[in-house]
Amino acid sequence: MNIKQTLTGFYLFLAVLMVAPITALAAADLEVNTPAISTLKNSMQTRHGQLAAHYGSGAVGLTRDGLIAVRDANAVLLAQRQGVNSLVSAENGDRNALYKEIATANGHPEWEAEVRSTFAQRWVQKAQGGWWYQDASGGWKQK
Amino acid sequence: MRISNITWAGLLLALTLQACVTINIYFPAAAAEKAADKIIDEVWQLKEGQPANTDPAAAPAK
């Protein structure tokens, strides 16, 4: 073992370190095409057919944490309330699973919270006029 | 003794660089937004041509 050997090893190590960030940058697109994500999307798409009317009536709103919640139960006929509650909780189950799956599928489970907050903003951004959403402080606002 | 000093210095430098690399693995906000938009369009079956506000910082219009 001498200085030369140590330095050669070190330079090799440096070369590896320089390549690593390039690899990280190359993977800048998020993977969202896993079977689990497709299943969740399909399930949410089907459910949306039933939920859309409730967004429109204001019974259900988009929450600031990327989920949905019953906002005004009075906007729903008494007989339908239980059904709406079930829809909301099924939708939230899918949404939570979706955020988690996207983070995991990209090798960074710790990204879940950031994925969630990205979605929270985008859901609101893409919501139709008249739908309700929570602002940053949790108050309901109508788009 | 001298080799040992260089080794330690090298190790320290390597650790410092490693820390920089780790910081570089940031959350890809733009890519996440793109992915979210794609998924939301599918779930809500929004039309392709619907204008999407590309500025994430902008507060949602009322």
3D architecture notes:
The complex is a heterodimer of chains A (143) and B (62). Chain A is of the alpha+beta class and 143 residues long. Chain A has one domain (33-142). Chain A is built from 4 helices and 4 strands; from the N terminus they run H-H-E-E-H-H-E-E. Chain A has a 4-stranded mixed sheet. In chain A, a hairpin with a 5-residue loop joins strand 1 and strand 2 (68-70). In chain A, helix 2 (35-57) packs antiparallel against helix 3 (78-105) and helix 3 crosses helix 4 (112-126). Chain A is elongated. The model of chain A has no long low-confidence stretch (mean pLDDT 90). Chain B has 62 residues and is mainly α. Chain B has a domain at 2-43. The termini of chain B are far apart. The chains are: A alpha+beta (143), B mainly alpha (62). At the A-B interface, helix 1, helix 2 and helix 4 of A face helix 1 and helix 2 of B.
What's the average pLDDT of chain B? 73
Shape of chain A: elongated
Please give the order of strands in the largest beta sheet of chain A.
2-1-3-4
Q: With helices defined by DSSP (H or I, 4 residues minimum), what is the helix count of chain B?
A: 2
Most extensive protein-chain contact, per-chain counts: A-B, 40 and 38 residues
Radius of gyration of chain A: 22 Å
Mind describing the biggest β-sheet of chain B? none
In DSSP terms (H or I, runs of 4 or more residues), the helix count of chain A works out at: 4
Give the total of beta strands of chain B: 0
Total separate domains of chain A: 1
Helix content of chain B: 55-70%
Low-confidence runs of chain B: 50-62
